[in-house]
Design goal:
The structure holds two protein chains of two kinds. Chain A has helices spanning about 5-35, 55-60, 65-95, 100-105, 110, 115-125, 130-140, 150-180, 185-190, 195-225, 230-235, 245-255, 260-290. By secondary structure, chain A is mainly α. Chain A has one domain (about 60-290): MetI-like fold, CATH 1.10.3720.10. Chain B has two domains: about 35-85, no CATH class; about 100-310, MetI-like (MetI-like fold). Chain B contains 14 helices and no strands. In chain B, helix 5 crosses helix 9. The radius of gyration of chain B is 24 Å and the shape is globular. By secondary structure, chain B is an all-alpha fold. The chains are: A mainly alpha, B mainly alpha. At the A-B interface, helix 1, helix 3, helix 4, helix 5 and helix 6 of A face helix 2, helix 5, helix 6, helix 7 and helix 8 of B.
């Protein structure tokens, strides 16, 4: 009943609404972005074809610096998410007997609207009256209030920490599920043979967890590269552009200054990066699922 | 096995490491030797786990305490963690400072609800087509859906803005609902397709032999069986939509009476003098409905969100 011509027609009919929707809302805009990137489109009614001018312009400007900053920002953020998420998954797997309670406590940053969490961080970073500045002062690490979001360096790290906070629950929940799916008899066999806890961790847990960590890292890389809300709310890309990543730069150019053409060229650059990540992700899940089969 | 257990179990595919809560080993007094820790190990474990949870929960705790502190106490040095003369005043005065707060909360929930309904209308038939039928381009379409979930709306903002203008729906609910829905589809389709693959074909074949039409089989045989999977997909879509409606709502709508919670409070946050205790009180009030919903439904959500994120 599923291979005949009428079955195929039926399948396409079921598929068509979703397909048309995606092509209209994602496919067409993707092509339109590429088109726009070769024009000087703006609020003016006339649109001229300008060839590669937008691309030449962004590379003449500070775009190289923005790319480097985006890569550094993303690398540290993903690295910390994976590190803290892995530690969290392992610790909570071992320490807390009630898995339900653990889920309820770990997931909130993930399920609330991102801006709401960021507002709370905005207060935590407050220099005069915020908790973090007061803690550093109390520990004697700083000698006065630190206005975290007012200086490029601290603002850069503050946005990373908040991004990590939002990303950790997903990494933790996924890796926890992965830890718990490692067959128990592996541990029992090793234990019977006299293997210590650290040896079991290094020789069983870690290797068994590695594919999950690789998949999660790539996925997290893609999400983090796309991160917009946190930086936009905390610093708006400032101070003096020092937290401006590629996404923020695109938004400022296109929506802030109405330079649609120049903004589209930046968006195309982001798409190129995402396509590379996507390629690695597809390769990775192909490999993982072939091993699983 | 109860029905809830089977949902969690079935939503995960064979090699997805999603372990339902009910599979937890019973931790009774006869914990096997292998799981026993010495006192020092135990202390270290709890300290590490405590540190982790403090990182996750501190912003919530601080937000809660700030909402109880009077402004004069908030803007005083040295810093005090615990509130003196705590009061719920901010929860009363916030309704005057943010007159549209009720609207913001309702708008956020409304947008998420319509997005979920719209997404389900598209996800359910598409998942069935991809789960049951073999046709040319099958793999390409599956991969294409997956690739869509990698691109955020932020990248496509300019053409989407022009598209919304062409449709004539800028500054309406639709401008916030339509773009976001597209990004809910890929995860939902992958998740539900995986679930439908596990429904045995025999029932459909029996109905086919009895002369039932294809659409009848889809609606009367497959859909009821797939209902638990649909519920998980719906919950996942709702929460995702609620958490990620900021950028479209910020860019495609400027009418304050249509703004969802995140954008409505953002204008409050951006002021020169932020009234922090009221902002935190409004934030907590705004997310309370979803937090309550989450506590009761977290089991389905974890299954949906972890499986959807990773299993492809």
């Amino acid at each position: 009943m599923t291979g005949t011509r009428s079955a195929i027609t039926f399948a396409w009919l079921l598929l068509l609404p979703a397909l048309i929707y995606i092509l209209t809302i994602v496919g067409y805009p993707l092509i339109d972005t590429i088109n726009l990137s070769f024009t000087d489109a703006s609020l003016r009614p006339t649109v001229n074809f300008v060839g590669w001018e937008n691309y030449q312009d962004i590379f003449n400007a500070e775009f190289g610096g923005i790319i480097v900053r985006t890569i550094v920002w993303t690398t540290f953020s993903v690295g910390l998410k994976i590190l803290i998420g892995t530690c969290g998954a392992l610790l909570l797997n071992a320490a807390i007997p009630g898995r339900t309670l653990f889920r309820i406590l770990t997931m909130p940053p993930w399920i609330i609207p991102i801006p709401i969490g960021v507002f709370a961080w905005g207060w935590l970073y407050n220099g005069q009256f915020g908790m973090i500045s007061a803690m550093l002062e109390g520990l004697g690490l700083t000698s006065g209030p630190t206005e975290f979001l007012a200086y490029g360096n601290t603002a850069f790290w503050s946005t990373i920490v908040t991004d990590v906070w939002i990303g950790v629950p997903m990494v933790t929940m996924y890796l926890l599920a992965a830890v718990q799916s490692i067959p128990k008899d592996l541990y029992e066999a090793a234990w019977t043979d006299g293997a210590g806890r650290f040896y079991r961790f290094r020789r069983i847990t870690l290797p068994m967890l590695l594919p999950a960590i690789a998949t999660m890292s790539t996925l997290s890389l893609i999400f983090t590269f796309n991160s917009f809300d946190i930086i936009w709310i905390l610093t708006g890309g400032g101070p003096r552009g020092q937290t401006t990543t590629m996404i923020i730069d695109t938004y400022k150019t296109a929506i802030g200054s109405y330079k649609y053409g120049a903004g589209a060229a930046r968006a195309v650059m982001i798409c190129l990066f995402l396509s590379v990540f996507c390629y690695f992700y597809f390769r990775l899940i192909n490999k993982v699922s072939r091993q699983g089969a | 096995m109860t029905s809830t257990e089977s949902i969690v179990r079935d939503v995960a595919t064979e090699d997805t490491p999603v372990v339902p809560a009910t599979q937890a080993p019973p931790r009774t007094s006869d914990t096997p030797m292998i799981d026993r820790y010495g006192p020092v190990e135990k202390a270290l474990l709890y300290a590490g786990a405590g540190l982790f949870l403090i990182f996750i929960l501190m912003p919530f705790i601080e937000a809660g305490l700030v909402s109880l502190k009077p402004l004069s106490h908030l803007f005083s040095r040295p810093y005090n963690f615990f509130p003196e003369n705590a009061s719920f005043d901010a929860y009363v005065t916030m309704w005057q400072s943010v007159p549209l707060l009720g609207r913001y909360i309702a708008n956020g929930l409304f947008i998420a609800l319509v997005q979920t309904a719209l997404a389900l209308l598209l996800i359910v038939p598409a998942s069935y087509a991809l789960a049951r039928f073999e046709f040319p381009g099958h793999g390409l379409i599956l991969g294409g859906f997956l690739a869509v979930s990698m691109f955020s709306g932020a990248v496509l903002l300019i053409p989407l803005y022009r598209l919304m203008r062409t449709f004539g729906i800028l500054n309406t609910y639709w401008a916030m609902i339509i773009p976001g829905t597209a990004f809910l589809l890929p995860t939902g389709i992958w998740l539900l397709r995986t679930y439908m693959l596990r429904i045995p074909r025999e029932l459909e074949e029996a109905a086919w032999v009895d002369g039932a039409g294809r659409f009848y089989i889809f609606r009367r045989v497959v859909l009821p069986l797939a209902m638990p999977g649909v519920v998980v997909v719906a919950l996942t879509a709702f929460i995702t939509s609620f958490a990620q409606q900021f950028i479209f709502a910020l860019t495609f709508n400027s009418k304050s009476e249509l703004m969802p919670l995140s954008v409505g409070l953002f204008s409050f946050f951006g002021r020169q003098e932020v009234i922090w205790n009221e902002l935190m009180a409004a934030s907590i009030t705004g997310i309370a409905p979803v937090l309550v919903m989450f506590v009761f439904l977290q089991r389905y959500l974890v299954a949906g969100m972890t499986a959807g994120a990773v299993k492809q």
